[in-house]
Amino acid sequence: MTKIVSRFAPSPTGFLHIGGARTALFSWLLARAAGGEFRLRIEDTDRERSTQEATDAIIDSMKWLGLDHDGEIVFQSTRADRHNEVIDQLIASGHAYYCQCSKEDVDAMREQAMQQGRKPKYDGTCREKGLTSGAVRLKAPLDGATGYEDMVKGFISVENAELDDMILRRSDGTPTYNLAVVVDDHDMGVTHVLRGDDHVNNTPRQILIYKAMGWDVPRFGHVPMILGPDKKKLSKRHGALSVMEYEKMGYLPEAVCNYLARLGWSHGDQELFTMDEMVRLFSTDNLGNSPSVFDLTKFEWVNGQYMQQADPERLTGLCADFLAREVGEEAAAKVARSAIRAAVPLLQPRAKSVVDMVEQLRPFIAEVDDLAYDEAAVQKFLTAETKPLLEEIAARIEAEPAFDEASLEEVHRKFIEEKGIKFKVVAQPIRVAIMGKTQSPGLFETMLALGREQTLARLRRAVSL
Ligand code: GLU
After folding, report:
1. Which residues approach ligand 1 with their CB closer than 6 A?
2. How far is the CA of 49 from the centre of ligand 1 (A)?
3. How far, in Å, from the CA of 280 to the mean position of ligand 1?
């Protein structure tokens, strides 16, 4: 069996958006599932529209997603000599010819084909002229059909009478896109081409080039577009953002991969897959042939699931990084790692993203004097009646040698018993005192995450408000 080699071949004319990332992921999964190779090629031949920034962003995004590639990255722009060499071989073998037809000539030829009841096709008069300059065209077959078994769409066949004698090299000497893709895929040993179905019309043309060169034709698969909830092309508003924008919003890369995989691939009705599981289960047989609809709410849900499962130590690091981005390295370094570490497990069940977690983390890591209070909650719960109670609770916690869940429970139980009050009389005032607001994880676990010193300091500061 020959080794499976797949690839991702983005044009660096913009950032890697999630549609492209999904194509990359499928292609990566295809290779990894088969123990094959996954190659990366940057199709930077359009010098005007390609940018270094976009190239860097694509590479960074792939890294972040964990889509590692084998071998060196191939930059298409460095391969023009090789592309021209192949074109020259095609001319020499009679599979391509120079053509000097103007655009008007081509249009007239198409018109004529139509009048003769043929497909609107250009199969130039220059074919037999033996010219030695001009654009170079492929001498495409006039009859028969070019078909292939698409890994996603099933058998696709196009009559050759519909395929123009396509240009391989423009008269300015530059090779065309279809030619470059074929030569590069061949030279990189690509056996499986998985790409967006905006390329489906290129495929029969590319197959003709493979055949003219006598090369093995790879397998092709074309994945349908991702649509917005309005069933139209996915717009920015509906989530067509770059991969790194999701990173900035605090999504975890494995959640992004999981969600993207499910947009077009399925394994029963399972929703959550680790990367290893996807590698184990992936097969192009389970790629859907109808466009999938992007659902931001579901994406958030998937991310929340991964937040819950993530290693707390990793989230601690991520929260620290996000804080540093926000307030700068120096200010972030002042926040004790231990304070973040203590709070993270409490926030995991409720944080939708790292950004959300950092937001919920703030009261845990604030200096006593910097704790932000919800004014309405302060008015309502830190009153002349509750403040003395808080004062006393602080004193009792301080007097208790242990500081753990059991001792805190005991201190509070005794306290309310002696006072003859319900726990809820003090619960919200304590919460507002230590967190500045009325929502927080469980009271005792919150106190434990804060530590004895912070808990006491906050209770006492609340009394003095
Ligand atoms: N560079 C092309 C694109 O970004 C992809 C070509 C291919 O996958 O064959 O659309």
Report:
1. 9-11, 43, 181, 195, 199
2. 14
3. 26
Question: Ligand 1, from 195, 201, 219, 225: best to mutate by most atoms within 8 Å of Cβ?
Answer: 195
Residues of the chain with pLDDT > 90, as a percent, come to: 92
Atom of ligand 1 nearest to the CA of 43: 1
Nearest to 290 by CA among 227, 208, 332: 227
Q: Is the pLDDT of residue 119 over 90?
A: no
Predicted confidence (pLDDT) per residue in 324-377, tens digit: 999 999 989 999 999 999 999 999 999 999 999 999 999 999 999 999 999 999
* Whether the Cβ atoms of residue 190 and residue 216 lie closer than 8 Å to each other: no
| Nearest CA owner, ligand 1 atom 6 | 9
Residue 444 has a CB neighbour count (10 Å cut-off) of 18
Q: Is 205 exposed, middle or buried (0-12, 13-18, 19+ CB in 10 A)?
A: buried
Q: Which of 11, 50, 177 to mutate to test the pocket of ligand 1 (most atoms within 8 A of CB)?
A: 11
For residue 262, CA distances in Å to 303, 310, 337, 357, 440 come to: 13, 20, 36, 25, 33
Distances (CA, A) of 291 to 200, 231, 274, 281: 14, 9, 24, 21
pLDDT single digits (tens) 46-102: 889 999 999 999 999 999 999 999 999 999 999 999 999 999 999 999 999 999 999
By three-state DSSP, how is residue 195 classified?
strand
Asked if residue 246 has pLDDT above 80, the reply is yes
In the 8-state DSSP scheme, what is residue 175?
A: B
Q: To the nearest 5 percent, what fractions of the chain are helix, strand and coil?
A: 55, 10, 35
Give the pLDDT band of residue 238 (cuts 50, 70, 90): confident
Distance of CA 28 from the midpoint of ligand 1 (Å):
15
Q: Report the catalytic residues.
A: 236
Q: What percent of the chain has pLDDT over 70?
A: 100
Per-residue CA distances from 432 to 362, 373, 415 (Å): 14, 7, 19
